[in-house]
Amino acid sequence: MSVAKKIYDKRSFLFKSLLGKRVAFHHVPKCAGTSVSRALRKKYALSQQSIGAPLTVETVQKIITGKKNYYNISQEIRTFRMALFDYFIEKDYFLVGGHVPFSSATYEKFKNNRYFITVLRDPVDRFLSEFSNNQHKSTYSGINMSLKEFIDSEEAVNYGARYCEYFCGKTEYNGPTGDMISYAIKNLSCFSVVGLMDNMHQFSFDLKAKIGVQAKFAKENVSKKSIKDKMSAVDSLTLKKIQVLCAPDMEIYTAIRDN
């Protein structure tokens, strides 16, 4: 056995003794992910990697043309993030997390020594929260239109199918088809822990029970307006359109919640 291999094995043994089990966290936008990420990064401070959303967008833009619009290179960003996620798990960081879609290939490769976790939220609440967060922002994901204008846009379809997009398991994703919904439900059923944002206490309990991770989740990146306030400001016709847009994610959310 080489000296390098002996050093690596000792490092791995030490980290396992101190940190416990290895975790892969898939952070869906506006699903308490910032709170979960910060709590877990404290726990896994000695061995963790986070895949930053803005930096990955900037990197892909530089690789392609340096000027391409975010919405025109979403597939390239998706592929890049999934590859980075796989790479960091391969490098044996004990915690790897970020705004990264689930990869069936990565899961099959690492399912025997890696615990996959995520948090879901009522899809309509999540839709409104993501829209509110991005409206009038000057960042790559900024939206410069009203909610009524936005719900008729192509991007609104993506907002309503984030779970389908994130958990279908495919590198190529072209929208919320029936097959993609079925894949997402099947893949989420393989996760070690799936939390629900309206019951973070249960998520914390399940993390402790199934993985041995004890963490307290503070409220992070919270909107000044509550979802109740946002819902009350939405007229019935607009709300109905949002519910239609969120139908793919609602099917996934309901299947996982009920199980």
Report on this model:
The structure is a single chain. The protein has 259 residues and is an alpha/beta fold. It has one domain (21-258): P-loop containing nucleotide triphosphate hydrolases (Rossmann fold). The chain is built from 14 helices and five strands. The chain has a five-stranded parallel beta sheet, with helices on both faces. Helix 10 (178-189) packs parallel to helix 14 (247-258). The mean pLDDT is 90.
Summary tags:
single chain, 259 residues, alpha/beta, Rossmann fold, five-stranded parallel β-sheet, 14 helices, 5 strands, 55% helix, globular
What name does the CATH topology carry?
Answer: Rossmann fold
Largest sheet composition: 5 strands, parallel
- What is the mean predicted local confidence, pLDDT? 90
Rg for CA atoms: 19 Å
CATH class: Alpha Beta
CATH architecture tag: 3-Layer(aba) Sandwich
Q: Please identify which CATH superfamily we are dealing with.
A: P-loop containing nucleotide triphosphate hydrolases
Sheet with the most strands: spatial strand order:
2-3-1-4-5
The count of β-strands is 5
Distance between the termini: 47 Å
Our count of helices gives 14
Shape: globular
Question: What is the gist of this entry?
Answer:
This protein is of the alpha/beta class and 259 residues long. The protein is built from 14 helices and five strands.
List the helices and strands and how they pair.
Blueprint: H1 3-19, E1 23-26, H2 33-43, E2 48-51, H3 53-64, H4 74-90, E3 95-98, H5 104-110, E4 115-120, H6 123-134, H7 147-150, H8 154-159, H9 162-167, H10 178-189, E5 193-196, H11 200-210, H12 227-232, H13 236-245, H14 247-258
Parallel strand pairs: 1-3, 1-4, 2-3, 4-5
